[in-house]
Amino acid sequence: MNWENDPPEWIPAQGCALSKTGAWFDAVRVAGAEGERAAALLAACCEGEPGPVVGELIGARALYFLLPAGAARAFDWPRGARAHGAHAEDAVTFVGVPALRGDTWPLFWFARPTRKRPFVEARLLHVALGATLTEVNAHAPS
Hints:
- With 142 residues, this protein is of the alpha+beta class.
- It has two helices and seven strands; from the N terminus they run ββαβββββα.
- The strands form two sheets. A five-stranded antiparallel beta sheet has the order 5-2-4-3-7. The protein has a two-stranded antiparallel ribbon with strand order 1-6.
- The relative contact order is 0.28.
């Protein structure tokens, strides 16, 4: 069940809106295929409902995993994952959030928030990213 009829106030009614991280949520950004692999692993651990993951259709085609506000600072994220939030790597960061329906280009919901999972669980994401980014980092030049 999603929140089509009664979305949280941080989700815009139409189009896309920028939201300051650390206020409603923290975000962890992972570019390209690594983000998709982590999202698929996370979804498999969460009965297909990993929590909100926003994707971008341009540039690095990154995924933004939306965590509860303040949750990003509890972990050392692996290389390839960048945390954004009030006490994460950045002092001030804004993340684009798409509406639940209508034209939201260039953003889309890779996974929508649900009442059961209004945010991605930071600990599970950390494990999923550790599993997917370890091999990538092992082959990357230092």
